[in-house]
Specification:
There is one protein chain. By secondary structure, the chain is α/β, with parallel strands linked by helices. It folds into two domains: 2-55 and 69-283, Rossmann fold (3-Layer(aba) Sandwich), CATH 3.40.50; 285-373. Helix content is 31%, strand content 19%. The chain is built from twelve helices and 14 strands. The protein has helices at residues 2-13, 29-34, 79-96, 112-121, 168-174, 210-220, 236-243, 255-266, 290-295, 330-338, 345-348, 361-373, and strands at residues 23-26, 41-46, 97-107, 125-134, 150-157, 183-186, 226-229, 247-252, 304-306, 312-315, 321-323, 326-328, 350-352, 358-360. The strands form two sheets. An eight-stranded mixed β-sheet has the order 1-8-7-2-3-5-4-6, sandwiched between helices. Strands 12-11-10-9-13-14 form a six-stranded antiparallel β-sheet. A hairpin with a 2-residue loop joins strand 11 (321-323) and strand 12 (326-328). The longest helix is centred in the first third of the chain and has 18 residues, at 79-96. Bound molecules: S-adenosylmethionine. S-adenosylmethionine is lined by residues 28-30, 47, 49, 73, 204, 206-208, 231, 233-234, 236, 251-254, 257.
């Protein structure tokens, strides 16, 4: 298992035509994305400028100045300029995504609706919007509006046809056996995780918590995948990617932020390859037709299967079942004997061997699946 996991990751990095990964490119993302090959990325995570349009400095009741986002990278002349910029980088991201790739974008009420329209107009297929509920949001100091206590993430597939990655069962386990919901309650990035300069000031005004990215990376990419972040900032996407055995390309135009991200990433230790395997969803498991169980010799033609209500069906060489004159697949015959519109034959039928021992046929399916995912024998 250990060697298999490592090899899978290695194979991805060295694929022909793959760009250099685990790099931070200093430059404008519009120019730098254009240099990346088509269909090279498994996921894009983008935390673009918010276009906050702050009018004048914001102060607290004690007149101290709020450390908001008033940097040049967040300034656009008007909505039209912001939309042009947004559509250009989103178009490039779609080009560099593999057909089965997906994108996450994060924004606040200032920009997230514009991002959503652009995504849909450009052919992406929205899968969810996730609300990141902040446990420690900045108060609304003037008391003129509700406390702005969340940001919205949009998760979209490259197209409607995309077979995107989603580790449903792993996320359910992560969430103590409860289906993961689209509202995530997490604190802002504070404490030791927050990068600071020599004077103790925040290195980056909008550094995201790594926990947010952990969930995104764990749930929607596989080990060895390539994640591109066109607005890398302090490198949070890279940190989560590296820790979880994924690859990253970060683009950041501010040299101070890029340097801080580089230093941060050097200190991140990836988890061991064998610890990165997540619980697979049933849908991801290889399909095994019932005929293969017969082919593999677990069940022989002429053997009997028994239903929960005691009905016996005879197994035929082609993988069909016969009960009286009625024949069909394990599912069809299962539905027939239970008088139901549909039936999952795998969990319905039990095999009776010559000594009268009963085994659920799903056990045989599991054994066949094991042989399908075992590492290839050495020549
Ligand atoms: C909202 S911040 C991203 C923060 C990041 N997610 C983190 O956790 O640190 C946006 C970043 O995009 C960068 N940026 C803005 N416009 C850019 C552009 N055209 N090309 C590359 N980087 C850009 C800014 O310098 C800023 O660091």
């Amino acid at each position: 298992m250990k060697r298999q996991a490592k090899n899978q990751i290695k194979a991805k990095i060295s694929a022909p035509g793959a760009p250099d990964s685990d790099v931070i490119i200093e430059g404008d993302c519009l120019a730098e994305l254009a240099k990346l090959p088509d269909a090279c990325a498994d996921l894009v995570f983008a935390d673009p400028p918010y276009n906050l349009q702050l009018g004048g400095g914001l102060t607290r009741p004690d007149q101290s100045v709020v450390d908001g986002v008033d940097d040049d990278w967040d300034k656009f002349a008007d909505f039209a300029e912001y939309d042009r910029f947004t559509r250009t980088w989103l178009t490039e991201c779609r080009r560099i995504l593999k057909p089965d790739g997906a994108i996450w974008v994060i924004g606040s009420y200032h920009n997230v609706f514009r991002l959503g329209v652009a995504l849909q107009d450009l052919g992406y297929w929205i899968l969810n919007d996730v609300v990141w509920r902040k446990t420690n949001p900045m108060p609304n100091f003037k008391g003129t509006r509700f406390t702005n206590a969340h940001e919205t993430l949009i998760w979209a597939a490259r197209s409607k046809e995309t077979k995107y990655t989603f580790h449903y069962d792993a996320l359910k386990l992560f969430n103590d056996d409860l289906q993961m919901r689209s509202d995530w309650t997490l604190p802002l990035c504070t404490g030791a995780e927050r990068l600071k300069d020599a004077q103790g000031r925040k290195t980056h005004p909008t550094q995201k918590p790594e926990a947010l990215l952990h969930r995104v990376v764990l749930g929607t990419t596989k080990p060895g995948d390539l994640i591109v972040d066109p607005f890398f900032g302090a490198g949070t996407t890279g940190a989560a990617a590296k820790r979880l055995g994924r690859h990253y390309i970060g683009i950041e135009r501010d040299p101070t932020y890029a340097a801080a991200a580089r230093a941060r990433l050097k200190k991140v230790t990836p988890a061991a390859a064998e610890d990165l395997m997540v619980t697979r969803s049933k849908k991801e498991e290889p399909r095994v037709p019932f005929g293969q169980i017969i082919e593999a010799g677990f069940i022989r033609p002429g053997d009997m299967l028994i239903s929960p209500n005691g009905k016996k069906a005879r197994v035929r060489a082609d993988g069909s079942l016969a009960i009286g004159d009625f024949t069909g697949s394990i599912h069809r015959v299962g539905a027939h004997v239970s008088n139901a519109p549909a039936c999952n034959g795998w969990t319905f039928w039990t095999h009776l061997d010559s000594k009268g021992r009963e085994t659920s046929i799903d056990i045989f399916r599991k054994q066949v699946r094991k042989t399908m995912s075992a590492p290839a024998a050495k020549a």
